[in-house]
Amino acid sequence: MLATIGKFFADKFRRLLPDSFIFAILLTFLAAIMAFMFVDAKPFGIVQAWYKGFWILLAFAMQMVLILVTGYAIAISPPAEKFLDWLSTKVKTPVAVYGVVTFMGCVFSLISWGWIVLTAVLGRELSRRVKGVDYRLLAACVYTAFLPWHGGLSGSIPLVLNTPDNFLIKAKVLSETIPTTLTLLSPMNIACSLGLLIVLPALMIMMRPSEQHVVSLDDMVDEEHKAVKPMSVAEEADSLKLPDKNISDLLNNSLVIQVIICLMGLWFLFDHFYSKGFDINLNVMNFLFIIVGMICHKTPFRYVIAMKRACSNVSGIVLQFPFYAGIMGIMIYTGLGKAIAAWIAGFATVGSFPFIAFLIGGFVNIFVPSGGGEWAVVGQPILEAARTLGATMPADQLTAFFARVSMAVAYGDAWTNMIQPFWTLAFFPVIAAGTKMQARDIMGYTFVSLIASFFIFAICVTWVPV
Q1: pTM (2 decimals)?
Q2: What pLDDT is attached to residue 162?
Q3: Which residue, 122, 219, 346, 383, has most beta carbons within 10 Å?
């Protein structure tokens, strides 16, 4: 039954969904039209807001590039290959591949959203080693496994709430930080995360196509990529050495240099986590990936080669981030984002508002597919509405209400990623490298994931206690 449903939506989305860049342009037009109609923004004012926003994600875009390339560099290292060799002895059927990739991907996402890259590498390698895996469904497993991220350790909204002097405190919407015990460690979030960990792997397994409809990795790879097996990183490094001993090769391939710089990095990371607990952000994650990658590749030159390979497919991020930042600019600088949040919140009661906040998070995420960026747009009006609705609550109950509503927005942000192809930019350079795969090939399957996860999110934000 689910296999038929998955195939139906996969075929429909393949015909309807354009390239992710075209999708970004169409969303730009829609945001501009909405700003003109609903907040009385002037046409050139909208263009100015678009341009002003165009550059506000440059630092984030660079962090995304680093997440991608450093994660990929680790994934093509000898230790990662040994782990995959071991795992492939345990995972021997397509059913196991779908389940393991989705489950491990959910675990990775709960640690860090940037680890979607590692999920993609795991999926690609297992598809090479296990026959009969449908590669389009496998890529959908990778993206589906991204659903729990905002309830994990890198969830931007709960981390912002727990940051001293955050923008909501400065705006006097909050009087103090909201601890992670009320967000990430709450019964609501634990129940939601466990629900996704259990349901999503089973869902992807049940959507597997029959044998005659399987499209494998080999079916999707271009012929020129089939013809030549690339050298390993170590083999390429050895091939570039000069025939006689020389200083440059000694330095390029020096284990001592690599060990010293890695020890410096590990010293910093140990001190950081020892003194601040599990305080992780994009900068810490990227630094950790760099150090771990250098350790895995043993010598500086091997790591250089790995990074060159990893950097070969970041064009999507470089091109599309400014356009989504432009949409974010329209939402922020015309007041459209606040207007949407305030309008929807006007229908709310204390009991219904968490669910409404979830829908707001999902809707705005389509236009601003960045958790931190979306919270900058709707965070203040959402919590101001929550304060009004909870005016008679005791202080501790009001804080818990703020936490519930904020996590509802976070879940909404993660939820509609399943129909918003933006985050395919983070893992398609790995999963689709050398193939004809496009985002439209997987979005039908992830649409089914969107429907299934809706019930988990809706039940948790409405009834499970904080």
Answers
A1: 0.82
A2: 87
A3: 122
